[in-house]
């Protein structure tokens, strides 16, 4: 990737963060409630035995209500932990208590081998991003963790974003590379 492309992606990341951060709290709350409802009503969620979620931070699309609902529905819920460059490992949680501040300041579950979950075909992964497009491509934070994960993940994946983060084409923005893996669906509000 050339310097111009890297600068373009960095500028797009900053623009998307600003759009998300500038949302009024009332809009953010309504959008999160709508996304939670849409995720939990989806066929992918209903069929999943395991929910691979993320511990949302800052103004990201919140996963707290979806995680709570999945636990109430008796699903296994696992959160990722950074396990090296571009590597995630998943650990089962019963709630969001006891998480640790991990790589990049993101809350992670403890690395407990007895709680490790191997992502299977029966799992649904919720994927964060700064932007998504209509084909499922995502603009992440630049670490490559989710592209690496999605490349071998056998289950279904849903990207979560606010309406202001959904663009027509990330390729047209110069933000899609050969190693990028699209999610199966994008849920927005």
The coarse overall form would be globular
Strand order of the largest sheet: 6-3-2-1-7-10-12
Which bin fits the share of residues in helices?
A: 25-40%
Tally of DSSP β-strands: 12
Class based on secondary structure composition and strand pairing = alpha/beta
Low-pLDDT sequence parts: none
Sheet of most strands = 7 strands, mixed
Q: What's the order of the H and E elements?
A: HHHEHEEEEEEEEHEEE
Mean pLDDT over the full residue set = 94
Indicate the CATH topology: Rossmann fold
- Indicate the CATH class: Alpha Beta
Strand residue content: 15-25%
The figure for the number of domains is 1
| Total of helices | 5
Cα-atom Rg, whole angstroms?
16 Å
Superfamily at the CATH H level?
A: NagB/RpiA/CoA transferase-like
Write the layout of secondary structure elements.
Layout: H1 3-21, H2 25-41, H3 43-47, E1 50-52, H4 64-72, E2 76-82, E3 88-93, E4 100-101, E5 107-108, E6 116-117, E7 123-127, E8 131-133, E9 138-139, H5 145-152, E10 156-161, E11 166-167, E12 185-188
Parallel strand pairs: 1-2, 1-7, 7-10, 8-11, 10-12
Antiparallel strand pairs: 2-3, 3-6, 4-5, 8-9
Helix pairs in contact: 2-4
Structure description:
The strands form 3 sheets. Strands 6-3-2-1-7-10-12 form a 7-stranded mixed sheet, sandwiched between helices. A 3-stranded mixed sheet has the order 9-8-11. It has helices spanning 3-21, 25-41, 43-47, 64-72, 145-152; strands spanning 50-52, 76-82, 88-93, 100-101, 107-108, 116-117, 123-127, 131-133, 138-139, 156-161, 166-167, 185-188. The chain has one domain (3-188): NagB/RpiA/CoA transferase-like (Rossmann fold, 3-Layer(aba) Sandwich), CATH 3.40.50. Strand 1, helix 4 and strand 2 (76-82) form a beta-alpha-beta unit. With 189 residues, it is of the alpha/beta class. Helix 2 (25-41) packs parallel to helix 4.
């Amino acid at each position: 990737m050339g310097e111009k492309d890297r600068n373009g992606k960095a500028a797009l990341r900053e623009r998307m963060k600003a759009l998300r951060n500038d949302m009024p709290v009332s809009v953010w709350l309504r959008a999160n409630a709508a996304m939670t409802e849409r995720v939990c009503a989806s066929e992918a969620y209903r069929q999943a035995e395991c929910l691979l979620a993320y511990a949302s931070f800052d103004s990201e699309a919140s996963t707290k209500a979806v995680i709570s609902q999945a636990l109430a529905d008796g699903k296994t819920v696992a959160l990722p932990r950074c396990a090296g460059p571009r590597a995630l490992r998943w650990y089962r949680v019963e709630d969001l208590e006891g998480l640790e501040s991990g790589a990049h300041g993101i809350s992670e579950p403890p690395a407990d081998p007895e709680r490790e979950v191997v992502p299977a075909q029966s799992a649904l992964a919720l994927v964060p991003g700064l932007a998504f497009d209509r084909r499922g491509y995502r603009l992440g934070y630049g670490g490559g963790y989710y592209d690496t994960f999605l490349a071998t993940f056998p289950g279904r994946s849903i990207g979560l974003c606010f309406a202001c983060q959904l663009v027509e084409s990330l390729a047209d923005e110069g933000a899609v590379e050969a190693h990028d893996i699209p999610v199966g669906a994008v849920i927005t509000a």
